[in-house]
Design goal:
7 strands, two-stranded antiparallel sheet, Rossmann fold, 2 domains, 239 residues, alpha/beta, 16% strand, single chain
Amino acid sequence: MSILSDGWRALKGLFFPPLCAVCGAPLEPSEQTLCMLCRVTAPLTNYESEWGNPVEQRLSALVPIEHASAMLFFRRQGGWQQLIHDFKYHDRWRTAFELGRWYGNRLKNSGMYADVEVVIPMPLHPLKQLRRGYNQATYLAEGIACELGVSVDRRAVRRTRNTSSQAQTPRHQRAANVEGAFAVRDPERLSGRHLLLVDDVFTTGSTVAALIEAIRAELPDARISVAALAVSQREIGIK
């Protein structure tokens, strides 16, 4: 059976080689999800190693946090935007997991997230998750937790309201759109721990701030950090 399986994989790789999720080039056997050129030229922020980075400043002005960062600058149009769109809406969960591992490795190497104890993905409302089929933030969180050597808690928080998309909500209405949209399950199991909240794209920070407020209302002794995969340069004042 293993010989047949190996033969099928080799045949499949010959006629349908895996492609880079950004540029579409065939991947080498040693490459995962992204080709080496796209990894080297990725729009990295390096914020995971920078105290008081723009994401941390933006979020800490809204709610108390330990650390906050984003790994990539969100680039409109082109391969990087398509990559995020694909894993968010087109069932490319393996891409989300591999990107999470890449980010998790960078978080670990920075030393600033060494005492994180639990990773929590940004929850989707059950109806939205049913339509989409999965929560992309969960797979990002799984990849990050794998590298940090900690657990993922998928049930720690829940979304209580099926809010409209923040991307399609006017900026001045985004905070109100997600106000009271989250609740904490079994708060005693998270009490006093350092939690890392994971989301895909950071814009105004309204959504993650609403989640942090819900957590702190139940867990005033919890320490909370945030890791978003990407951040809009325009939102943090970078041209």
